[in-house]
Design brief:
The chain is mainly β. It has 2 helices and 6 strands. Helix content is 13%, strand content 40%. A 4-stranded antiparallel beta sheet has the order 2-3-4-5, with no helix packed on it. It has a two-stranded parallel ribbon with strand order 1-6. A hairpin with a 5-residue loop joins strand 4 and strand 5. Bound molecules: zinc ion.
Length: 102
């Protein structure tokens, strides 16, 4: 169990200084915008019937998933001054708790 404070004082790219920022846990699959090139290519190849070559196999990451018992935690930080948000990768953890301080 990793406890993360609900507010943290860290650098804001937009304000170009340290500001107080609100922390929320980012749920998987929402990082970045749209699909990456590899995902688009796989989608194209997976249409129709027949052998899809390398796309007939499961992704290596899915086969090897059992070897890891923890996941990397993504945090969504919102600047309290300019309301800009971005995702920051935290550490590996089995479970995460966001704790309110003060
Ligand atoms: Zn800011």
């Amino acid at each position: 169990m990793v406890k993360i404070p609900a507010k943290m004082r860290t650098y804001c790219k937009k304000c170009n200084k340290h500001t107080t920022q609100t922390v929320r846990q980012e749920k998987g699959g929402r990082r970045g915008s749209g699909l990456v090139k590899g995902t688009r290519r796989a989608k194209r190849h997976k249409r129709g019937s027949g052998n899809k070559g390398k796309y007939s196999k499961k992704a290596v990451s899915q086969l090897k998933m059992a070897s890891k018992t923890s996941a990397k935690v993504d945090l969504r930080l919102t600047c309290d001054e300019c309301k800009a948000t971005w995702v920051r990768t935290y550490a590996r953890a089995r479970s995460v708790e966001i704790v309110k301080t003060g």
